[in-house]
Write a structure and sequence with these properties.
This protein is an alpha+beta fold. The protein has three helices and seven strands. It folds into two domains: 123 residues, Trna Endonuclease, Chain: A, domain 1, CATH 3.40.1350.10; 41 residues, no CATH class. Strand 5 and strand 6 form a beta hairpin. The longest helix has 14 residues.
């Protein structure tokens, strides 16, 4: 049985409710929601489910975080290839879309995301500066690498975390919402 997600964390939690509702329209089943790293039936949660919980809790704690997908795709001139066409591909990529073979001529890589090894969630948190800055608030960069209970970060991810921390940002490995400072 599918349950509707109802949250009362804060007014910002409506954003997550809207995200879940969009997923339901696309045919995804909404899952019962509980904070923590386990579902109601005691099976480990996926990294994506943990990310969703962290996003909700972080929003309630004053953080502003965004999902950072890192990857590579290809761009170029796309054309249909008729069935049975033999073609030499010195500089082209073939793929299938809607049951038809397509060709990307003169492919160029298209990189997405901040950089290789960057955190799953990036954004900022407000920090109140002391009297020397007349009580102004600044935004501190935040990078959250989300992992399951058994997940391990890669070397580029550890390097990214170290560089952000050395530069004065907040970078961490999180396995649940409780790992974020200032978030209950």
């Amino acid at each position: 049985m599918t349950e509707r997600l109802t949250l009362t964390l804060s007014t910002k939690s409506a954003r997550a409710d809207c995200h879940r509702a969009r997923g339901a329209r696309r045919g995804y089943k909404a899952m019962p929601f509980t904070l923590g790293t386990w579902r109601h039936n005691q099976t480990p949660m996926s990294e994506r489910a943990i990310q969703n919980e962290i996003l909700l809790a972080a929003s309630a704690g004053g953080y502003t975080l965004f999902r950072n997908n890192v990857g590579q795709g290809w761009q170029g001139q796309v054309s249909d290839l008729p069935a049975g066409t033999l073609i030499q591909l010195p500089s082209g990529i073939r793929f299938w879309l809607d049951g038809r073979c397509k060709l990307i001529a003169n492919p160029r890589p298209l990189n997405a995301g901040l950089c290789i090894g960057s955190s799953d969630l990036i954004g900022w948190r407000p920090i109140l500066i002391g009297p020397e800055h007349m009580g102004s608030t600044i935004a501190q960069f935040v990078g959250v690498e989300v992992k399951t209970a058994k997940g391990r970060e890669s070397k580029p991810q550890a390097t990214f975390r170290r560089v952000v921390t050395e530069a004065g940002g907040l970078a961490m490995l999180a396995r649940g919402p409780g790992d974020l400072p200032g978030v209950e």
